[in-house]
Amino acid sequence: MEPIIQVSNVWFKYPGEDPSVEYFVLRDINLSIGIGEYVAIIGPNGSGKSTLARMFNGLLLPNQGEIKIAGLATTTLENLWDIRKTVGMVFQNPDNQIVATTVRDDVAFGLENLGVPRSEMQKRISRALEAVGLSGMEESAPHYLSGGQKQRLSIAGILAMQPKVVVFDEATSMLDPQGRKEVLNLIASLHQSGTTVVHITHSAEEAFLAKRILVIAKGQIQLDLPRDELYKQSINLEKWGLEVPLPVQLHQRLIKRGIPLTDHVKSTEDLVMQIWKLLSKT
Amino acid sequence: MNQLVIGQYVPGRSLIHQLDPRAKLAFVFAYMILVFFANNIASYGLLLFFSACTIYLSQIPLRIFSASLKPILFLILVMILFHLFLTKGGQVLFHFSFLTIYEEGVRQAVFISLRLILLVLTASLLTFTTSPMDLTDGLENMLHPFTRFGLPAHEFALMMSIALRFIPTIWDETEKIKKAQMARGADFESGHIFRRVKSYIPVLIPLFISAFRRAEDLALAMEARCYRGGINRTKLRELHFSTKDLGLVIIFAFLVLGICLLRE
Q1: pLDDT above 90 coverage of chain A, percent
Q2: How many domains does chain A have?
Q3: Chain A: residue whose CA lies nearest to B210
Q4: Chain B residues with CB-CB distance to A96 below 8 A
Q5: A93 touching B (Cβ < 8 Å)
Q6: In B, what residues contact A, Cβ < 8 A?
Q7: Could you say which residues form the signal peptide (chain B) (predicted)?
Q8: Where are the domains of chain B?
Q9: What are phi and psi of A26, to 5 degrees?
Q10: Contact between chains at A96 and B132 (C-beta distance less than 8 A)
Q11: A247 touching B, CB under 8 A?
Q12: Does the CA dihedral B73-B79-B81-B83 come out positive or negative?
C-alpha cells in the first residue's frame, strides 16, 4: 500500500542562514509512514523534529527533496489545501491555537474554512466533541477550560476536519500530569480508530507508547525501530541527550549488580515478568 | 476583570436577546442619532421611558446597568459643573460673588447628562444582550456590501473576535507578569503618577513580546486548519430576520414621529 507520508532526501534550512551544511536543520531525511501507524519522533531540543513535523502539512517546504502526502507533493501550491485537510496538526501551546470565543465556534473554524455545509457541520462538531469528551461544553468560553481541556478542544477542531493523519507537535509538553494523561489517552484511542498518529516529543516515556519510534538528532534520523527493539538499546538514548526510561535504567543496573536477567527485555511488562519469575524461583 | 471588559455579554433568553444582531446594531446606531434630536423635557421623557422599557424587557439586573454607568460618572459630573457655571441665558437662579447660575445652565446640565446616560445605556444594552460572536457576525454581514469597495469585512470581524477571545488570556498574563516583577521588588503602588506609569514598563515589554509570539503561533495554527481568508467559507452561525426584528423598524418609526412632535 502507498505510504500516507513519504519523505525523500529532504534538506531544510531556515531562510537567512548560512548555506553551508552545518546550518541545515534537516539533512537528507528519508522516511515513510504507512496508513494507521502510530509513530513517535523523539529528539533533543533543536534536533529538527518540529521542523520535520511542520513539513508534513506544508507549513514549511523543503529546500531540496520532496514530501508526498497521500501521493500529493507539498511543494505544489494547488495541493496545499488537500494536504492540510489530510494532515491535522496539534501544537504545543494550548492557548495559542484556539481562535473563537466558544468551544463550538472553535471546532467550527476549520470546517468553515473548508466550506462544509452548515447541517453537516453541526453533525461533525457534536461527533468531534463527543470523541474528545467535551460534549455539553459547547457554549463554554475557552478561557474557562483547563490546559488539558483546551488541548482536547484543539484536537476536536482537527478531528472535525476528518484528517487521515494527526501530528502532535509536543502537544503534551505544556500540560500538567492530569492534562497529559487525558491527551495521551486520546492519542491512543485515535490510533485504535485507525487514524495515523505522529507524536513529536522529547519525552522517551511518551515515545514508548507508540508502535514505532524514530530518534532524530543533529538533523538526521539516528534510529528508526519498532518499540520492542528500541527498548533493548534505549540506554543509547543518553548519547543524544535524551532521558532513558526508568525501567530501562533499572534493568541495566540490576544486570550490573549481577542479578541474572536476560539482555533482551522488550518492554516494561517483559521486565516485570522476568523479575517475578526470578523472585518466585528464590 | 469585570471593570476592564467593556460591555460584557450577559447570557439570557429575553426578547431582546433573541433579536437579530444586525437589527439591533442598526437600531442602536439610528437610536443614538435620534437621541441628539431631543431638546425638551417631553422628548427626553419619551426616550427615557423607551430605554426603561428595553432594560425591563432585557431581564438583566439593574445593578449591571448602573455598573456600566460608573466609569462615566466623573465625565457626567464635569459636564454638569461646566454647564451650570458657564452656560448663560434665561433667568438668574443663583448668584454668589463670581458664581452665577442661569436657568439655561441648569437646563443644559440636565439634558447633556441625560443624553450621555441614554447613549451609554443603549450601547450597554446592545453588548449585554448580544454575544460577541453574534455581534461580530452581524457586523461582518452588514459590512459585506462594502467589500466591493475594498473593505475587508471578513478580516475585520475575525480580528474583532480574536481580540475578544484573547482579552482574558492576556489579562491573566498581565497579572502573572505583574506578580513576577513584584517578586523581584517592583513597586506599582507608590510614587507620583509618572513614576507609577513608568513602573509599568517592565510589565508591558514582556507582555508585548508574548503577544507577538501568541500571534505567530495562532497564525500558524489557523493556517494548519486551512484558513485562507474569507473565500469559499461557510458559516456555522446563521442570522435570521424575524417578525420581531421588523417590529424594531415600526417602533423606531414611532419614536421618530414622537420626537418630531414633542421637540421644540
Answers
A1: 62
A2: 1
A3: A96
A4: 213-214, 217-218, 221
A5: yes
A6: 11, 131-133, 161-162, 164-165, 168-169, 213-214, 217-218, 220-228, 232-238
A7: none
A8: 15-130+239-262, 153-224
A9: -125, 135
A10: no
A11: no
A12: negative
Q: Which three cell numbers stand for residue B161?
A: 473576535
Answer yes or no: is A169 within a domain: yes
Q: What is the pLDDT of residues A126-148, one digit of tens each?
A: 999 999 999 999 888 898 899 99
Whole-number Å distance between alpha carbons of A165 and B5: 40
At residue A77, does pLDDT exceed 60? yes
Q: How far apart are CA A221 and CA A229, in angstroms?
A: 16
Q: Give the pLDDT confidence score for residue B7 in this predicted structure.
A: 58
For residue A258, the 8-state DSSP code is T
A-chain residues near B235 (CB < 8 A): 112, 118
Q: Is A111 on the interface with B (CB under 8 A)?
A: yes
- Domain membership flag for residue A208: yes
Domain range for A194: 5-244
For residue A100, which of B131, B226, B220, B127 has the smallest C-alpha distance? B131
From the CB of residue A134, how many other CB atoms can be counted at a distance below 10 Å? 20
Which residues does chain A have within 8 Å of residue B133's beta carbon, measured at their own beta carbons?
A: 100-102, 105
Query: Grid coordinates in use for B147?
Result: 467589500
Angle formed by the axes of helices B62-69 and B103-129, nearest 10°:
120
Is residue A23 situated within a structural domain?
Answer: yes
- Retrieve residue B51's grid coordinates: 430605554
Cell of A280: 518466585
Whether residue A271 lies inside any domain: the answer is no
CATH for A118: 3.40.50.300
Beta carbons of B240 and B137 less than 8 angstroms apart? no
Query: Which mean pLDDT values do the consecutive 10-residue runs of chain B (264 residues) have?
Result: 56 89 93 91 93 92 86 90 85 81 88 92 90 87 88 88 89 92 86 84 93 94 90 84 87 92 85
Interface contact A98-B165, CB threshold 8 A: yes
Query: What does the alpha-carbon distance between residue B118 and residue B34 come to, in Å, rounded to a whole number?
Result: 11
- Is pLDDT of A22 > 80? no
How would residue A186 be classed by pLDDT, with cut points 50, 70 and 90?
A: very high
Least confident of A194-203, A230-239, B19-28, B177-186: A230-239
The mean-pLDDT minimum among A40-44, A61-65, B151-155 falls in B151-155
Q: B233 vs A110, A127, A163, A192, CA distance in Å?
A: 10, 21, 19, 32
Instruction: Let me know: does A91 contact A97? Beta carbons within 8 Å.
Output: yes
Distance (Å) from the C-alpha of residue A252 to the closest C-alpha of chain B? 41
Work out whether strand A196-201 and strand A38-42 pair parallel, antiparallel, or are unpaired. Answer: parallel
How far apart (Å, rounded) are the C-alpha atoms in residues A53 and A44?
14
